[in-house]
Amino acid sequence: MGGYVQGVLVLLAINVISAYAAYLPIAAGQLNLGIAGFMAIGAYLSAYLTNELGVAVLPAILAASGLTGLLALVIAVPVLRTSGIYLALATFAVGQIVEATILNLRIVGGAAGYPVSHYVGLPMIAGCAFGVFVLVFVLFRMRFGLCITALHDDAAVADLLGVNVRAYQTAAFALGSAIAAVAGALYAHHFSYIEAQSFNVLLSIYIVLYVLLGGTQTIWGPLAGAAMFTLLPELLRVGAEWRYVAFAVILIATMAARPQGLVTAAPLRRLFAARRAAP
Amino acid sequence: MLLQQLINGFALGSIYALVAVAFTLSIGVLNFLNFSLPAIFMVGGVATWALLKAGAAWPLAVLGALGAGAVLSLVIERVTWRRMRGAPLFVPLVSSMAFLILLENLVLVQWGSDLQQVPSPFAEVNLRFFGLIVSLPQLVGLALSIAMVFGLDRLLRRTRIGRALRSIAESSDTALILGVDVASVVPAVFVISGLFTALGGVLFALTYRQVHPFMGQEVALKGISAMVVGGMGNVWGAILGGLLIGVAEVLSIRFLGADMVDIAVYGMLLAILFVRPTGLLGGLALGKGRV
After folding, report:
1. Please, which pLDDT band fits residue A69 given cuts at 50, 70 and 90?
2. Which residue in the set A88, A90, A104 is minimally distant from B270, CB to CB?
3. Does A275 fall in a domain?
4. Residues A181 and A65 sit within 8 Å (Cβ to Cβ)
5. Residue A264: φ, ψ to 5°
6. Worst-scoring range by mean pLDDT, A183-192, B86-95, B194-203, B204-213?
7. Do A78 and B91 touch (CB under 8 A)?
8. Average confidence (pLDDT) over B167-191
9. Does A259 touch chain B (CB under 8 A)?
10. Which of A57, A130, A151, A243 has a CA positioned 20 to 30 A from the CA of residue B273?
11. Which of A174-188, A218-232, B265-279 comes out lowest in average pLDDT?
């Protein structure tokens, strides 16, 4: 496998993981515009654990993910008091503050960035992406998925039917943030250097776009969206400086044709029903 | 010196306020976080620069830039909002963001990513009072923002189209049933918000004398924050929030250092969201805090 293809696959895997980080809260009806902030926390925590405390890579990534999830639980208490567009803007502010705080943290290099000592390659990153997908797949097969979908469709009715709305929203938010931390940590260990500015709000917005472009109705949407967002600009490289112009036009055309996203529930259901009926 | 900083803060804030008004209209009436507005802001600034460089007189350059903003906004309405009415809440976000990518890269292809110096169309732009320096675009910008918001406020309260917009803000479906021609009123929201943002871009170009393809992003984030601080859907709140953010930014650069600006500004945003989730003036406006 050439270095270029490998580089693209690494980006694809990291983008898929971050897409699921955004998908969990979106599936519960919350738009988290601070994903990049949680990625940054995961990246810096994991880098710090390996660099300064001598922790091995895999435990460091898992610990960073867990700690970020706990931090997200704490942040969720005030943030989830808001809802709808206010929630999106509160998470946006959280992301901005995380970026600005790291920029001022001398202990991890501040504005000069932070070198990361332990390298991870494509197999591990692809493995983590697969692991995250399986986790989300299993979660949505369980009661968790059912309740999340219920409160996404109508929080009031879900509440009346005995779903603990607040608990599930908090869980989706914190779990999404923990997954974001994994994406950030993998990014840090692969590129061996991180700086706060790479985890800006634009990245958060792009990650949300993966999910919305792919479709929020099924767990296949984030996968499709992240793939299209990563691979299309690469395919359009022939267009030289016009490639992002072409990319934007294709995005606009895709959303105009399929406002619900690339993958929607109905055709998938038909496909699986046909398969089951065929033999 | 503090007074000078306040003046600078108000000048920056009046640009944020114009952008905040555009966001607040879009969210208040349509519940749509329009991410193409930063692009309109950039187009306003870049068009001013390009027309001035081509030798146009400044009134022509300003009108051209405003016109470009309004026309682009209409095109964006056609392709994003109109096609996606009834889709889930956050869906038009993708297309509007795609327009941001599109317009930024078109400008990039045409003129490159360098900072472009805007020639000053005025001979002497600085007025001096008692040792304080006020640049003319700053002063005009502040006066114009307040005048335009006053005009918008009248429009919303007194005119037929304003009543239609307020009814759509309450409930688009009910407005439709009661005979409001929603499809023909919504473009007005886009034209007005396009004009406000483009004017922000024009003033930015004339005050700070530089433009580049990505100039809209940072300003738009501050504009969104200004909208939230003032109270979403409240046009006077947008002015208040814009000026507050502008002054907070300039003062924290002066007293805390440039690195602390974002912590100060977004910390203030978060604090206000937690204490008063509807913003400082939210809930005081017409129709439950929305436009």
Report:
1. very high
2. A90
3. no
4. yes
5. -115, 165
6. B86-95
7. no
8. 85
9. yes
10. A151
11. B265-279
ipTM of the assembly? Answer: 0.83
A135 touches B at CB < 8 Å: no
Whether the CB of A74 is below 8 Å from some CB of chain B: the reply is: no
Q: Is residue A228 assigned to a domain?
A: no
- A231 found inside a domain: no
pLDDT given for residue A277 in this prediction? 65
Compute the distance between CA of residue A232 and CA of residue A241 in angstroms, rounded to an integer: 14
Q: Does the beta carbon of A1 lie under 8 angstroms from any beta carbon of chain B?
A: no
Tokens at B155, concatenated: 């429009």
Q: A126-130 — which CB contacts under 8 Å span 24+ positions?
A: A126/A9, A126/A13, A128/A13, A128/A17, A128/A61, A128/A182, A128/A186, A129/A13, A129/A14, A129/A16, A129/A17
CA gap B51, B47 in Å, rounded: 6
Count of pairs with CB atoms under 8 A, one residue in A, one in B? 123
Mean pLDDT check: name the lowest of A179-183, B113-117, B245-249: B113-117
B-chain CB neighbours of A92 within 8 Å are: 221, 224
Q: Is residue A104 within 8 angstroms of chain B, CB to CB? A: yes
Buried/exposed A185-224: b ≥16 CB within 10 Å, e otherwise: bbbbbbeeebbbebbbbebbbbbbbbbbbbbbbbbbbbbb
Q: What mean pLDDT do residues B66-78 have?
A: 93
- Mean pLDDT (chain B) is 85
- Name the residue range of residue A167's domain: 3-200
How many domains are there within chain A?
Answer: 1
- Mean pLDDT over B111-124 rounds to 78
Q: How far apart are CA B279 and CA B275, in angstroms?
A: 9
Average pLDDT over residues B83-111: 83
Q: Does A246 touch chain B (CB under 8 A)?
A: no
Structure tokens at B114: 């360098």
Residues in a beta bridge with A114? A194
Return the residue of A nearest to B93 by Cα: A209
B90 with A31: Cβ contact below 8 A: yes
User: Is A148 a member of any domain?
Assistant: yes
Q: Does A101 touch chain B (CB under 8 A)?
A: yes
Q: Is there a contact between B98 and A252 if contact means CB atoms under 8 Å apart?
A: yes
Give the gap in angstroms from C-alpha B15 to the nearest C-alpha of chain A: 20
How confident is the model over B150-168, as a mean pLDDT?
Answer: 88
* Percent of chain B surpassing pLDDT 70: 93
> Which candidate from B80, B259, B273 shows the least CB-CB separation from A93?
B273
Chain B residue with Cα closest to A84: B89
Give the pLDDT score at A278. Answer: 60
Percent of residues, chain B, with pLDDT higher than 90 = 29
